[in-house]
Design brief:
The structure is a single chain. This protein has a 3-stranded antiparallel sheet, covered by helices on one side. The chain has 2 helices and 3 strands, in the order E-E-E-H-H. Helix 1 runs antiparallel to helix 2. About 15% of the residues are buried. The protein is an alpha+beta fold.
């Protein structure tokens, strides 16, 4: 197993180069837009207090969190395939992608 800690958003990637399907990515939980009621990143009108929330805001939160998951999955895939994810340019790209997701979703 190999672990790479990036300097952006507390991202830590753990993977096994001999098992391309295995690995994980953890990050600062504040990276996600959490439900204001239950603090879950996956809540989509599921907790007892969210049914009264603005539908557009909940959909936007859910879409943004999906984009974050996609970006984190891509980082893991790049690491497993041998791309050097621990460079200033790559980390700047991560930050740019996350900012774009926040501005467009």
């Amino acid at each position: 197993m190999k672990t790479i800690e990036l300097s952006v958003h507390g991202i830590q990637v753990t993977f096994d180069t001999d098992n391309p399907g295995g690995g994980s990515v953890v990050c600062n939980p504040n990276l996600y837009d959490l439900c204001p009621h239950c603090s879950s990143k996956d809540c989509f009108f599921q907790c007892g207090q969210s049914p009264g929330d603005d539908r557009g805001a909940v959909v936007s939160r859910f879409q943004f969190n999906g984009a974050v998951n996609g970006i984190l999955s891509m980082i893991l895939a790049h690491a497993v395939s041998g791309i050097d994810i621990d460079t200033p340019a790559y980390e700047e790209g991560i930050d740019t992608a996350l900012q774009a997701a926040g501005e467009n979703l």
